[in-house]
Design a protein that fits this description.
Number of strands of chain A: 3
Oligomer: heterodimer
Number of helices of chain B: 4
Strand order of the largest sheet of chain A: 1-3-2
Largest sheet of chain A: 3 strands, antiparallel
Radius of gyration of chain B: 17 Å
Helix content of chain B: 10-25%
Number of strands of chain B: 7
Helix content of chain A: over 70%
Number of helices of chain A: 5
Shape of chain A: elongated
Largest interface: A-B, 47 and 51 residues
Structural class of chain B: alpha+beta
Radius of gyration of chain A: 22 Å
Structural class of chain A: mainly alpha
Largest sheet of chain B: 7 strands, antiparallel
Distance between the termini of chain B: 24 Å
Chain lengths: 117, 145
């Protein structure tokens, strides 16, 4: 089994590329598009889109299912949710701490100024 | 690549902020996610030196994180590795970087917590994939895989 951190890294690495983000955004608007429908708005060739889909699939962000000659692409929410949870967890963790840090440093600054006077 | 960035403006000079984030005495005053106490703070702020912080949350849970100072440029920049003690939720090593910039009212602190740290990824991060994430989040909220 791929561990949590590897999964997260793979998710974020897949999201680094603007074309891949655009593909996801397109699926967000309309899920279950065929590969050629997905490729339409992009100025790149079908094989390049296929490569991006391989990366997204590898990161578990989309699934592809074949029916006859059509490959349908769908979003898979779980890895994205994990990535968002990681961000939220650390944002919660640090936000309040950094507020306290600011208060503490500002007190120290006031103290230093009193001494300098 | 997985990373979180927070920016704070603090009305104190960079040297004071720098000491507050690197010395044991400073860390003991603010570290942790809520108003729970810091139980232990150790820090040896030089390259290769280690730090260790144990704190209690208001819900009673105790947590400890530790790591090594990887880069120190007083009062501009500090980079340290980060690892939770005994966390199954998040067992890997990550990296905390704090950049301090003097601004008229004091210091602008840019705080980054990252799982990976390759430069290309960071550049791409700065180009703003967060916006894309925000948009996608609406879709994923409440959807089952």
């Amino acid at each position: 089994m791929v561990n949590y951190q590897e999964r997260l890294d793979r998710t974020f690495a897949a999201l680094v590329d603007p074309t891949r983000r655009a593909i996801l955004a397109q699926l967000e608007r309309r899920d279950g598009l065929s590969v050629s429908e997905l490729a339409e708005p992009f100025a790149i060739k079908l094989p390049a889109v296929m490569k991006h889909l391989d990366v997204l699939d590898g990161a578990g962000l989309v699934t592809r299912s074949k029916s006859g000659r059509t490959v349908t692409v769908r979003l898979r929410p779980r890895p994205m949710r994990e990535a968002m949870e990681w961000l939220r967890r650390y944002e919660r963790f640090w936000s309040a701490g950094l507020d306290r840090l600011a208060t503490y440093a500002e007190d120290k600054e006031a103290e230093a100024r009193r001494k300098e006077r | 690549m997985t990373s979180l960035t927070l920016v704070r403006r603090i009305k104190a000079r960079p040297q004071i902020v720098f000491d507050a984030v690197t010395t044991a005495e400073g860390i003991a005053h603010w570290w942790g996610p809520d108003a729970g106490p810091v139980l232990l703070a150790e820090s040896d702020p030089r390259v290769g030196g280690r730090y260790r912080v144990r704190f209690r949350r208001l819900d009673g849970g105790e947590h400890e994180s530790s790591g090594e100072f990887l880069e120190i440029v007083r009062p501009e920049r500090v980079v340290m590795s980060w690892r939770w003690k005994g966390s199954e939720e998040d067992p890997g090593e990550s990296r905390v970087e704090m950049r301090l910039r003097a601004v008229p009212e004091g210091t602008e602190l840019t705080f980054t917590h990252a799982l990976l740290h390759d430069e290309d990824s960071r550049r791409n991060h700065e180009e703003g994939w967060m916006g894309a994430l925000d948009k996608l989040e609406a879709h994923f909220a409440g959807t089952e895989s």
